[in-house]
Amino acid sequence: MVIRAHLDKELQELHYSILAMGGLTEEAIDKAIRSLVKQDVELAEKVIENDDVIDKMEIDIVDKCIKLIATQQPIGKDLRIIFTSSRIVTDLERIADHAVDIAKATKRLANEKYIKPLIDIPRMAEIVRQMIKESLDAYINEDINLAEETCKKDDIVDALYKQIFRELLTFMMEDPRTISQATQFLFICRYLERVADHATNICEWVIYRVTGERKDLNI
Fold first, then answer.
1. Does any domain span residue 216?
2. Would you say the C-alpha torsion 68, 69, 73, 79 has a positive or negative sign?
3. Which CATH number characterizes residue 204's domain?
4. Per the domain annotation, does 93 fall within a domain?
5. Residue 76 · residue 209 · CB < 8 Å
6. What is the DSSP letter of 212?
7. Domain range spanning residue 205?
8. Which of 92, 116, 135, 161 has its CA 20 to 30 A from that of 197?
């Protein structure tokens, strides 16, 4: 009973650490997009600076997972909880990296007048942000249905990516002077599309955590 109580305490601490990291990651994406829309270099810098905090959280959580497996020798669902925790934080760290990528693009575009009002990119970003939030909600509540529903939004993100890609390609073909800026926007859209993929991965890990079944929902 003492061993079980100790393991439960460690798993609860692991849970809270993931939630804290998830909150910072969601915030990083939100700030990165706001910095892009407002061409706010100072806000973009904050996203870049805060990435070190998220990186360290990932390292600490993965280390904790390894130690728990080595010292507690968990089995069954306990093992799945620890294993999926290590995978979820890896996806969160990658999402934060893409927030940094967007912030760096913001800095490169800071002194340029945008070739068009930003409408579809923020729309795409909002869906992606919802996916991150819902994937974390699914994790908190061990909600398989929410995980599966969240993954369906990846198709919407992919469709928006293709739409924006075609539009920006038209800009570049009609006016070569737009190529540099349009290319940066294409990169940003690609980063957001990858964030949606990582949110989908988190949902897949939630399903595995609860059921022990691996589902490929990123198709």
1. no
2. positive
3. 1.20.58.220
4. yes
5. no
6. S
7. 2-211
8. 116
* Domain total in the chain: 1
Q: Would you say residue 217 lies in a domain?
A: no
Amino acid of residue 64 = K
Q: Let me know: does 57 contact 18? Beta carbons within 8 Å.
A: no
Residue 59 DSSP one-character state: H
pLDDT value of position 77 = 87
Other beta carbons within 10 Å of 135: 30
Average model confidence (pLDDT) across the chain: 93
Distance CA 23, CA 3 (A): 31
Band the pLDDT of 1: cuts 50, 70, 90.
low
Average pLDDT rounded to a whole number, residues 50-71: 94
Residue 205: both structure tokens together: 């890990």
Chain segment 124-181, per-residue pLDDT in tens: 999 999 999 999 999 999 999 999 999 999 999 999 999 999 999 999 999 999 999 9
Residue that has been written with the tokens 């964030």 in this structure: 195
String of DSSP letters for 67-134: HHHHHH---HHHHHHHHHHHHHHHHHHHHHHHHHHHHHHHHHTTTS--SS---HHHHHHHHHHHHHHH
Measured CA to CA, the distance from residue 171 to residue 117 in angstroms comes to: 13
Confidence of residue 72 (pLDDT cuts 50, 70, 90): confident
Query: Is residue 143 within a helix (H) or strand (E), and if so which, with residue range?
Result: none
The string of DSSP codes covering 31-55 is HHHHHHHHT-HHHHHHHHHHHHHHH
